[in-house]
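Please decode residue identities from the backbone states below.
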């Protein structure tokens, strides 16, 4: 499965509204998990089995807790009935191929 998630604190007390330190703490957990992952400006996507992916997301969410009084967590999952590996990059490769074929 692929799970894209965004986790951020609120009630940080920061006047600039920045959450980069908290997000860095969460991404550090994801990267140390050993699961395939990718982070962009809005989400971090993790690939793996249900239990292992959600354990990492739980730990990443806990890592954000010290940075504010509340936590916002947004999830989007792609769950296949027949598991595949390498979909983190394969989905993008198929998209790029389709775009090239349409030109």
């Amino acid at each position: 499965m692929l799970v894209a998630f965004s986790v951020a604190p609120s009630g940080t007390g920061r006047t600039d509204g920045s959450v980069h330190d908290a997000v860095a703490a969460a991404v550090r957990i994801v990267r140390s998990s050993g699961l395939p992952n990718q982070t962009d400006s809005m989400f971090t996507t993790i690939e793996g089995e249900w239990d292992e992916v959600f354990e990492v997301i739980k730990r990443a969410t806990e890592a954000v807790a010290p940075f504010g009084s509340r936590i916002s967590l947004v999830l989007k999952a792609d769950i296949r009935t027949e598991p595949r590996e390498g979909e983190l990059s394969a989905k993008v490769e198929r998209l790029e191929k389709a775009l090239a074929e349409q030109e």
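Observation: The first strand starts at residue 2 and ends at 10.
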